[in-house]
């Protein structure tokens, strides 16, 4: 049996972000907002692309450019650690930075992402 594809692709175009936000399926936590959309026939990744796609966003409400970039880096790393192992494949995820994202303790930020996946029913236990 082939090993599951653990890669995470990227959402880059505005319509992809809007499609995820349009489902209104989300989890709000102090450190982040997790938005989720299941792939459908219209916006399914092309053959050979990763089964999980991720988009990151941080508006100016989060802070100046330095703070927004730090928040995005932290969200990207949290997603890199958790999504490939524990997220259900076949979904697009958007992580939205909040005012507390850049300064939130790292374990709390990871906990926010884990809690969001569990609450939305997308948590998968690691194999092995």
Put the structure in a nutshell.
This protein has 128 residues and is of the alpha/beta class.
Write the layout of secondary structure elements.
Layout: E1 8-10, H1 14-22, E2 26-28, E3 32-38, E4 52-57, H2 65-86, E5 91-97, H3 106-119
Helix pairs in contact: 2-3
GO cellular component, one term: ribonuclease P complex
Family: Belongs to the RnpA family.
Catalytic activity: Endonucleolytic cleavage of RNA, removing 5'-extranucleotides from tRNA precursor
How is the largest sheet built, in terms of strand order?
Answer: 1-4-5-3-2
Overall structural domain count: 1
Radius of gyration: 14 Å
Number of strands: 5
Strand content: 15-25%
Report, as a whole number of angstroms, the end-to-end distance.
14 Å
Low-confidence stretches: none
CATH architecture: 2-Layer Sandwich
Q: What structural class do helix, strand and pairing data support?
A: alpha/beta
Taking the sheet with the most strands, its summary is:
5 strands, mixed
Number of helices: 3
Which CATH first-tier class would you pick? Answer: Alpha Beta
Order of helices and strands: EHEEEHEH
Share of helix among residues?
Answer: 25-40%
Overall outline: globular
CATH topology: Ribosomal Protein S5, domain 2
> What value does the average pLDDT take?
89
Question: How would you sum up this structure, described in words?
Answer:
The protein is of the alpha/beta class. It has a single domain, classed as Ribosomal Protein S5, domain 2. 35% of the residues lie in helices and 20% in strands. The protein has a 5-stranded mixed sheet, with helices on both faces. The longest helix is centred in the middle third of the chain and has 22 residues, at 65-86. The mean pLDDT is 89.
């Amino acid at each position: 049996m082939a090993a599951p594809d653990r890669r995470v692709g990227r959402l880059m175009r505005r319509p992809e972000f809007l499609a995820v936000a349009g489902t209104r399926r989300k989890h709000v936590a102090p450190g982040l907002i997790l938005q989720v959309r299941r792939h459908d026939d219209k916006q399914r990744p092309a053959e050979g692309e990763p089964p999980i796609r991720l988009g990151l966003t941080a508006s100016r409400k989060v802070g100046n450019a330095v703070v927004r970039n730090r928040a995005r880096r932290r969200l990207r790393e949290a997603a890199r650690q958790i999504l490939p192992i524990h997220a259900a494949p076949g979904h697009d995820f958007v992580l939205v930075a909040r005012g507390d994202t850049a300064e939130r303790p790292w374990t709390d930020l990871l906990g926010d992402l884990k809690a969001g996946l569990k609450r939305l029913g997308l948590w998968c236990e690691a194999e092995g």
